[in-house]
Write a structure and sequence with these properties.
Layout lengths: L20 E2 L7 E5 L27 E6 L3 E6 L11 E2 L2 E5 L10 E5 L2 E5 L3 E6 L7 E7 L5 E5 L2 E6 L2 E6 L7 E2 L5 E2 L5 E5 L2 E5 L5 E5 L7 E6 L10 E7 L2 E7 L5 E5 L19 E6 L38 H5 L17
Parallel strand pairs: 1-5
Antiparallel strand pairs: 2-3, 3-4, 4-6, 7-8, 8-9, 9-10, 11-12, 12-13, 13-14, 13-15, 16-17, 17-18, 18-19, 20-21, 21-22, 22-23
Length: 344
């Protein structure tokens, strides 16, 4: 708080007393967590009729935690948004592992009110439309999956065999896309940004996969910075000004920053998804192995994957599409996906 004149001390551990703040949740074997959005939201804000706003879904009040023994844990985090610094205490709202379906849970990805949870044996899709009453929508066998990333109609998964594409257009019937798998020896995590999937490939470095045609992916580039990246656990993609960067948790090697685009090397850097040219530009030693990196701030996200409003659009009388309206853009009335040239 060196530049914060509202504090009398220049260096503080927290803006509140430890006596009024405990956001720790004790679990048996927590493995991952997710928030419905990482944008600032206002669950208590009065909604305005002229903005055609729809209510913030109930799931936006919770943080979602996976535990290898306990399954799914929900924690209400509204207390951090109410402006009162003396009541910041977390408690469990739900612990759920019906019939042991989530035993071995190791990773969660949220897509609106659908939760995509990876366990030792495969994928479990949960319906969280009523967050405190989860329902299993579907399960899918995979070989010790490790991480997943969701984009539009596809869930991209890395497991012991490599990289896979799962069609989740219908979350009640997920399908592994045949001939869309790529063998990878040590895939540990995956992040998808527009037409590229970035895989933390462990000892094989950063694997950049072209997913512009999701059902026909191919390896675009394997990047190790001449062997400097050799224990890659996690990767996150973010933009700063006009350039794209990959932030790497490179295990025993610490933190690394890779520049993917810049005006000098990538003339098309202003495009929707320009070709990337990775270049290692910075690294930082960490006192222990770098295992994970948090996701950067999502911007301009007004609605989630199941049509629930997250933020207000910038014009009076406007609102984002709901799920039924979004379906009209890519599904026929019978639920089949539009195809070319059949539907043109």
């Amino acid at each position: 708080n060196i530049a914060n004149k509202g504090f009398s001390e220049r260096i503080v551990t927290a803006p509140v007393s430890p006596l009024g703040h405990d956001t720790h949740i004790s679990t048996k074997n927590a493995t991952s967590f997710a928030l419905p959005t990482n944008m600032p939201i206002a669950p208590f804000r009065q909604q305005l009729p002229e903005n055609l706003e729809t209510p913030l879904h109930e799931m936006y009040h919770y943080a979602f935690i996976t535990d290898a023994e306990e399954g799914l844990i929900l924690v209400n985090v509204d207390t951090l948004q109410d402006g009162e610094p003396r009541n910041n205490f977390f408690e469990r709202s739900l612990t759920w592992n019906e019939d042991g379906v989530l035993t071995g849970a190791r990773h969660i990805t949220l897509g609106g009110t659908n939760a995509y949870i990876l366990t030792d044996s495969g994928l479990v899709i949960l319906d969280l439309d009523t967050p405190l009453e989860p329902k299993v929508r579907a399960t899918l066998r995979l070989n010790h999956p490790r991480a997943s990333a969701l984009q539009f109609r596809y869930l991209f998964v890395v497991d012991q065999d490599g990289f896979h594409v799962v069609d989740v257009t219908n979350p009640d019937s997920p399908q592994v896309v045949q001939e869309a798998s790529l063998p990878l020896q040590d895939a540990r995590n995956v992040y998808v940004a527009r037409t590229f999937a970035y895989v933390a490939g462990g000892r094989d470095g950063l694997m950049i996969i072209d997913v512009e045609r999701p059902e026909k992916p191919f390896l675009y580039e394997r990047f190790t910075a001449d062997g400097a990246i050799s224990d890659l656990n996690d990767v996150k993609i973010a933009s700063t000004n006009a350039s794209l960067y990959a932030y790497l948790a490179d295990g025993e090697n610490g933190l690394k920053v890779v520049q993917l685009t810049d005006p000098e090397r990538v003339p098309t850097y202003y495009g929707f998804s320009p070709d990337v040219k990775p270049k290692l530009i910075a690294e930082k030693h960490t006192h222990g192995p770098a295992l994970a990196i948090s996701k950067a701030l999502d911007r301009d996200r007004a609605v989630d994957e199941t049509g629930h409003q997250v933020s207000v659009l910038g014009r009076i009388g406007s609102r984002p599409f709901n799920l039924e309206e979004m379906h009209k853009l890519y599904l026929r009335e019978n639920g089949e996906v539009f195809s070319f040239p059949k539907d043109w």
